[in-house]
C-alpha cells in the first residue's frame, strides 16, 4: 500500500542503549519481524498493529518536538515504506537511528541515518540469518551491536571482530549481555581481560521500567 506503514506504537522515552543512551527520543516501532531470537524482548510487535499514513506518523513524531528519533521493531526493514519514512524524518531535521536485525539488506537506508545493526550470535538461534554483505554498508556513523547470552556468544563476537576487521571500520562496536541471562559483571571482566575495542552497554530502560512496553 502506498505511503502507509503497519505500526505497533509511537512513544517518547529515554533511549536505553546505543550511542544516544539516556537522551530523550521518540520511538517509532513498526510491526512485524521475520526472525525469532530466543531472547527477543519485543515479541508484542510481531503481530497486530495498525495501518498509518506516513504523513500521520510524521505529524505524531513532530508533536513531541524531539531531537532524536529511533525507528525500531520488530524489523523495520521488513516494510519497504520504512525507507521513505526514514528519509522524511531526516528531511525534517531529526537525528535518526535505525535498529535492525542484520538479516535484511541495509544498502538503501538513507546515509544520514545511523544504522544500529545486530550481528546475531549463536545464542539468539538466528545467527544463520546474518547478512554479512551488510558490513560493507556500515560506516563511521553506524553502530554494530552484539547481544550475548553466554561465553560461547562472547567468543563468537570476538572472532567476528577479528575476522572482519570491525575495529577499523570507524563505527561503534557495542556488546550487551542478554538481560537476566548473562551477568554484566562477567562480560565486563572478559572485555577488560581481552582489551577488546568495544563499548559495553546495559539496557538502561530495563533497569528503569523492566519489560513494560512503551519504554
Ligand atoms: S530481530 Fe529483533 S524483533 Fe526480531 S526476533 Fe530478533 S530481537 Fe526480536
TrEMBL record:
Classification via SUPFAM superfamilies: Radical SAM enzymes
Positions that bind Mg(2+): 42
Gene Ontology biological-process entries: tRNA queuosine(34) biosynthetic process
Single GO MF annotation: S-adenosyl-L-methionine binding
Cofactor binding, per record: Binds 1 S-adenosyl-L-methionine per subunit.
Domain Radical SAM core positions: 20-211
Cofactor(s) named in the record: Mg(2+); S-adenosyl-L-methionine; [4Fe-4S] cluster
Pathway(s) the chain acts in: Purine metabolism; 7-cyano-7-deazaguanine biosynthesis
Binding site for S-adenosyl-L-methionine: 39-41, 74
This enzyme's EC code(s): 4.3.99.3
Origin: domain of life: Bacteria
Annotated binding of [4Fe-4S] cluster, by residue: 33, 37, 40
PROSITE patterns, per database record: RADICAL_SAM
Binding site for substrate: 14-16, 29, 72
InterPro entries, A to Z: 7-CO-7-deazaguanine_synth-like, Aldolase_TIM, rSAM, rSAM_QueE_gams, rSAM_sf
Catalyzed chemical reaction(s): 6-carboxy-5,6,7,8-tetrahydropterin + H(+) = 7-carboxy-7-carbaguanine + NH4(+)
HAMAP family: QueE
Family listed: Belongs to the radical SAM superfamily. 7-carboxy-7-deazaguanine synthase family.
Oligomer status and interactors: Homodimer.
Record function comment: Catalyzes the complex heterocyclic radical-mediated conversion of 6-carboxy-5,6,7,8-tetrahydropterin (CPH4) to 7-carboxy-7-deazaguanine (CDG), a step common to the biosynthetic pathways of all 7-deazapurine-containing compounds.
Protein name: 7-carboxy-7-deazaguanine synthase
Amino acid at each position: 500500500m502506498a505511503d502507509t506503514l503497519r505500526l505497533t506504537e509511537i512513544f517518547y522515552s529515554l533511549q536505553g542503549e546505543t550511542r544516544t543512551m539516556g537522551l530523550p527520543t521518540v520511538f517509532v516501532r513498526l510491526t512485524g519481524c521475520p526472525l525469532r531470537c530466543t531472547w527477543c524482548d519485543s515479541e508484542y510487535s510481531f503481530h497486530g498493529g495498525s495501518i498509518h499514513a506516513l504523513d500521520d506518523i510524521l505529524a505524531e513524531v513532530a508533536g513531541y518536538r524531539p531531537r532524536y528519533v529511533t525507528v525500531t521493531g520488530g524489523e523495520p526493514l521488513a516494510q519497504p515504506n520504512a525507507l521513505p519514512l526514514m528519509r522524511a524524518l531526516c528531511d525534517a531535521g531529526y537525528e535518526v537511528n535505525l535498529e535492525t536485525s542484520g538479516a535484511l539488506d541495509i544498502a538503501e537506508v538513507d546515509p544520514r541515518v545511523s544504522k544500529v545493526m545486530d550481528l546475531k550470535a549463536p545464542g539468539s538461534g538466528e545467527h544463520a540469518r546474518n547478512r554479512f554483505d551488510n558490513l560493507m554498508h556500515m560506516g563511521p556513523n553506524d553502530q554494530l551491536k552484539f547481544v550475548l547470552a553466554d561465553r560461547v556468544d562472547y567468543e563468537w563476537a570476538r572472532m567476528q571482530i577479528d575476522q572482519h576487521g570491525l575495529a577499523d571500520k570507524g563505527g561503534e562496536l557495542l556488546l550487551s549481555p542478554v538481560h537476566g541471562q548473562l551477568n554484566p559483571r562477567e562480560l565486563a571482566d572478559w572485555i577488560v581481560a581481552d582489551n577488546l575495542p568495544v563499548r559495553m552497554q546495559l539496557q538502561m530502560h530495563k533497569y528503569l521500567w523492566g519489560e513494560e512496553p512503551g519504554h
